[in-house]
TrEMBL record:
Pfam families: DHQ_synthase (PF01761), DHQS_C (PF24621). InterPro entries: Dehydroquinate_synthase, DHQS/DOIS_N, DHQS_C, EEVS-like. Keywords: Lyase, Metal-binding, NAD, Nucleotide-binding. Coiled coil: none annotated. It comes from Pelodiscus sinensis (Chinese softshell turtle). One of its GO terms (molecular function) is nucleotide binding. It comes from the Eukaryota. This is 2-epi-5-epi-valiolone synthase-like. Its cofactor is NAD(+). One of its GO terms (biological process) is antibiotic biosynthetic process. Residues 162-305 form the 3-dehydroquinate synthase C-terminal domain.
Length: 351
């Protein structure tokens, strides 16, 4: 039937896109996104989903795949687009990696945390049997599109949450980034990471900060995409926080738990002679300025030791503890004694 052939050829010429969008993002930005696709004559489908930590599961992956299948995409030239926070990007990444063994996808992060962290790297995944990110893979996106204007609708506490991961990179790798957070942290919280012209005092702090955060993150992740090397500076703040986060769920956000871990580790580094008293105070002060918690009563010595035993199990019997050895510098340690941990804890708890 020649008509059918015509239709098939038109279908080949037409631009088609399948988009998955976080429901909240759809509320704020959906009409703009639709206008964009219409203006560019794209035949599109937007699947708007409640992508939260509670729905981050294989069920949602399968329901996305059902919709992808009925819309029909050409995996050679029609990447799936994910627009949302880290949860949305992780679910869609996993769905795309499974569909026809691997369909390209594009990440468009819309939270600060996703912008600096989930935007970079190859990992995706969903929660399984009450365990965080238990099912997943390493399939990098074909591209990540960064647009900071999404961040203007993020609540203040969520911005602090993202700042926790940025501070991690600063403490491990970049004194300049630490100085930016120290001097402009509050301003960036107030202005929700948007750029404003003509404010001499702050320059374009948000642009500089996000750029440095992503660059340092890339430097760490790119040579070790599949995490074969277990000595990772990006694990700073992630030794004790998983245990703490699970224990007090849902009262602490991820970046907050990470910060409590980093605050304790700052005391450990000081006890071990790696940081001066002033540097230690400087770090804690910066954390407070970013409105991040530096202490939690449930983060007691028992929990700390339990978490470190877990760490040993998952890291081939070695602690691999990243610690700051100055501002913006770090090393990985395997020989921090129980006594050092106890002394650090005592001091941390007393201040
Ligand atoms: N793959 C990776 O490398 C990687 C890295 C870091 C984190 N993660 C994952 O990311 C998740 C956390 O990401 P998150 O902090 O972005 O959480 P999230 O995706 O749950 O988003 C947080 C909240 O913000 C809302 N939201 C998103 N964009 C918004 C906007 N522009 N304006 C207003 N509200 C908006 C969402 O609807 C949600 O309610 C975790 O599941 C974590 O495992 C993955």
């Amino acid at each position: 039937d020649p008509q059918q052939l015509d239709m098939a050829m038109n279908r080949e010429r037409e631009m088609r896109r399948f988009i998955v969008m976080d429901q909240n993002v759809d509320e704020y930005y959906g009409s703009k996104v639709r206008k964009y696709f219409e203006a560019n004559n794209v035949h599109y489908k937007i699947l708007s989903l409640p992508t939260t930590e509670e729905t981050k599961s294989m069920d949602l992956v399968l329901s996305i795949l059902q919709e992808v299948h009925s819309f029909g995409i050409d995996r050679r030239k029609e990447p799936i687009i994910a627009i949302g926070g880290g949860v949305c990007l992780d679910i869609v990444g996993l769905a795309a990696s499974l569909y026809r063994r691997r369909t390209p996808y594009i990440r468009v992060p819309t939270t600060l945390l996703a912008y600096v962290d989930a935007s970079v790297g190859a990992k995706n995944g969903v929660n399984f049997l009450q365990c965080k990110n238990k099912l997943g893979g390493y399939t990098p996106p074909v591209a990540t599109f960064l647009d900071r204007s999404f961040i203007q609708t993020i609540p203040r506490r969520h911005i602090s949450n993202g700042l926790g991961e940025i501070l991690k990179m600063a403490l491990m790798k970049h004194k300049g980034l630490f100085d930016l957070l120290k001097s402009h942290g509050k301003y960036m919280l107030d202005t929700k990471f948007q750029s404003h012209n003509g404010l001499v005092n702050h320059g374009d702090a948000a642009l500089k900060t996000t750029r440095l955060a992503i660059e340092t993150m890339l430097e760490e992740l790119a040579p070790n995409l599949w995490e074969d090397d277990l000595d990772r500076l990006v694990d700073f703040g992630h030794l004790i926080s998983p245990e703490l986060e699970m224990k007090v769920l849902p009262s602490l956000m991820h970046g907050e738990a990470v910060n409590i871990d980093m605050a304790f580790m700052t005391y450990v580094a000081h006890e071990n002679g790696l940081l001066t008293t002033e540097e230690k105070a400087d770090i804690i002060q910066c954390m407070k300025g970013l409105e991040l918690p530096v202490w939690h009563e449930d983060c007691n010595l028992h929990l700390i030791k339990k978490a470190l035993v877990e760490r040993l199990k998952h890291c081939g019997g070695q602690m691999r503890m990243p610690l700051p050895s100055g501002l913006g510098m770090a090393e990985i340690f395997n020989d921090i004694s129980e006594e050092t941990l106890e002394r650090a804890y005592k001091l941390w708890a007393s201040e």
